[in-house]
Each structure stands twice: as structure tokens, then as C-alpha cells.
Amino acid sequence: MVTTTQTRIYLARLASTAVFDPAGDQVGKIRDVVVTDRATGRAPSVLGFVVEVAPRRKIFVPMSRINSIDSGAVVTSGVVNLRRFERRAGEKLVIAELLDRNVTLLGSTKKATVQDIAMTQERTRDWVVSRLFIRHAAPGFGRRGSTENLDWNEVSGLFLESADQAVDSLLASIEEMRPADLANMLQELPSKRRLELVSGLDLEKLADVFEELPEDDRVEIMSAMGLDRAREVLEEMDPDDAADLLSELPPEQAEEFLEAMEPDEAEDLRRLLSYDDFSAGGMMTTEPVILGPDSTIAEALAQVRVPELSPALASQVYVVRPPLETPTGKYLGVAHVQRLLREHPGTLVSSALDTSLEPIGPSAPLGQVARYFATYNLVALPVVDENDHLIGAVTIDDVIDHMLPEDWRDKELDEEG
User: Fold this and answer.
1) Strand 111-121 and strand 9-10: pairing?
2) Tell me: the pLDDT tens digits for 65-86?
3) Could you give the CA distance from residue 305 to residue 256 in angstroms, rounded to a whole number?
4) Is the torsion defined by CA of 394, 310, 304, 374 positive or negative?
5) Which one, of 214, 199, 221, 206, lies nearest residue 244 by Cα?
6) Domains contained in the chain, CATH given
């Protein structure tokens, strides 16, 4: 029997709770709770927890494997099955699907939203949904309705597939999730719920999530999210990732999105789309850190401190003649941040250039690009046109991305192949 200091446990509060084995070693964190409806008159059954045990891997831990549930910690009874969690027919995820769901109070037409769900252990040792913490619909626009605790059977619509559902509680529960983990979660949600979550996500985070999604999923979401939202996401994404996404869409739809974008943004993407996917031009970003030769080292270091820059792009600064936007004036060289940190901040960045690193052309194939990175131990590489104008930079993460199989995002980190 599970030991707990509480007779009733509210499930939303378990999100991100640490899960430990009997020896006290942390197994992972709770990401959701699996429940299923039962025959009329019987309380819905709580089957177990979805536990994140490693980046991009979630497993199912049944309630029969839980020893104790206390504030801030859940302890398992021993070895757990590390097979990836796959939801079965009839199962629902409390945090992802049931919180914020609109329900109807029995015996009336009054509406309410589910704010939390409580479980209780029966004499049979089974765990069931026992209580719902609901918020009544407000009587006027902009007002918040009162809250109430009800028995599970005092409302209808909790398990209806067509039930309307807000997304506030789900957004709150995933606020600290990494983009890769959030992308993994999106793949597990029903299409309707997935679009609701996408609509509520912060634009910057959504752009990061799109860069982590497999091709089929991001094409499906992008095609369904509406022109304005799609345009905003594409403009927020790194240009190389946005171009990759556009290349996966039907040509007429990609052109529609490009037409809706800011002209300068669209021009960069059209240029990237003109290159082969597995060439330096097809892999590069058009927005590396670019400075003129009269910039100081202090200015260069300020530029690479921008939090949105990837570590690879922040590792070096590209120095060119004006104009400073790609395609730039003549490419002069690259300044490595490690070298800049050893120089006086007031010194000109042009005095710390590495001119020995030969840039590469946009038509260079993946194999040649990879050999450059391996030979010179690079994390980023400048790309120039036939007139020595800087047109972008290839980073090591994009090279690896193109060398892996297309379905690599669908695999666990410890899977082979």
C-alpha cells in the first residue's frame, strides 16, 4: 500500500515532482498522470505517472510501483520499466488534456473549468479520481468566477473528446521545459490540443520548439496554425531552420508564407532556398555576428553576449567591409572570442583577426564542409560568394544535423542507428 501524509492528493501539484528509487537515487521527474474512465457509476481510475527519466525519454510508472507520495518526492518500490511511454486507447493525461477542460454541473446548464483533480486510494488499494477543483464561469466579461471542490460525479464532460478546453494550466506546467522536451511532448498530444498549446506559447519558445520537431510534425502544425502566426514563427526562427521548414512545405504554401513576411526576412530565406539542402549554402545561417574593422573588442564581446545566440555562433565574430548585413562587403577575417578575451577591450577587433582560416563557397557539398570542420577543429565556418562577400556561416550543430538520419529526432538518446 502506498504511504502518504495526505488522504487526498491533487495531481496538478505533482508536476515536476522528483521520483526516487528505494535507495534514494533520483529516477526522474513526474511530467503527467495517466487516468482512464470506467463504467458508469465508478470513479475514473488513476493508472500511474509519466516520468521523464532523461532528455527526450518518458516512461510509465504504474501506481502499483509507487511506495510513497509525500510533499516534493515520490518513491518507487524498485526496478521500473524503461520502455518509452505510449498512451493506450481510452487513457487521458491529466495535465496535458484534462486541466482547464470545460465541464457542466449536473442538474443544470452551468459551466465550469477544471483547475485541479484529486485522487484517493480505495480499500482495494486502487487509486481513483475522487474530487475536482473547479472554477465557475464568470457572470460578466473580464471577471473570475468562484471556485469549488466537487465530487468527481457532480459534473459531466470531463472525458468527452469534443470538450472545449483552455490551455492556461498546461502552459504554466511547461514553463521551464526545454524546447526539445516540449517538442517531444507536442508529438504525444492529440491534434486539437497540440494546436491549442501552440497558439498559447510564447513566440520565442515556439520558434525554438519548431527547430526541434521532426519534419512531419512541424509541417502539420505549420499548415494548421494560420498565416499570421506562421509568419511570426518563421521570422523568429534562425534563417537556416526557417528555410529548412519552408522547403518541407508544398511550394504554393511556402510562397504564401514568404509573401506575408517582411521583405528583408523573405529575401534571406529565398536566397537560402536557392541552395541545395546538403551544401554549405543550404546549411548556413545568414545572421552570424558581423562587425566592421573599426569596431572595438569591447563591442565584439557585447555582441556575443546576446543570450539568443547559439554557443557555436557566439564563438567567433566575422569582420567585413560595409555593408554589414549579408551579403556584406569584402570579408576580412574571423575573430575568435577566446582570442578577444585576452586583448584590451579598447583595441580594434581588426587587430585580432585570424586570416588563416579559409572560408568556403556556398556550393561546397556536405562531405567537404565536414572535412573542413574535422581538419581545423572548427565550431563555425564562414561562407563567402565568388566576390569574397560574406553570405553566412555554417555551425557544427547544422553539420551534425545533416549527417544524421532524417528520423534522428524520433529516436531516444541511447538508441543506435
Assistant:
1) antiparallel
2) 999 998 779 999 888 888 888 8
3) 35
4) negative
5) 214
6) 1-158 (no CATH), 169-274 (1.25.60.10), 290-403 (3.10.580.10)
